[in-house]
């Protein structure tokens, strides 16, 4: 399924891209290697890990990983890059974390 999705996305980009761009005058090797590395490591490895996670803990719990990405990215931006933080950001993070916690509550079996 994932392979088919990526193949269809590639075909769509191959059709649409020439409508909005022109061929570059030159192509350097370094950017092509960077694209290949990001595709293989960033996307490929992430997909493999996600499928393993789904098989181990189920789709609902595995999907929660995506909710933590903005929270972690914001914390890293503040801690590592000195980005500013307004009051709404921690409130949004708290809502995300509370929502994720609520998805993990299992109903008690009735006796």
How would you portray this structure in words?
With 111 residues, this protein is an all-alpha fold. The chain has a domain of 48 residues. Helix 4 packs antiparallel against helix 5. The longest helix is centred in the middle third of the chain and has 29 residues. The model has no long low-confidence stretch (mean pLDDT 87).
Layout of strands and helices, then pairs:
Elements: H1 2-20, H2 29-57, H3 59-63, H4 65-81, H5 88-103
Summary, kept brief:
With 111 residues, the protein is an all-alpha fold. Helix content is 77%, strand content 0%.
Strand segment count = 0
- What is the approximate shape? extended
Distance between the termini: 41 Å
Structural class: mainly alpha
In helices, the fraction of residues equals over 70%
Strand content: under 5%
Mean pLDDT score: 87
List segments where confidence is low: pLDDT < 50 over at least 5 consecutive residues.
none
* Major sheet summary line: none
Order of helices and strands: HHHHH
**What is the count of DSSP helices, taking H or I runs of 4+ residues?**
5
Radius of gyration, in angstroms, nearest whole number: 20 Å
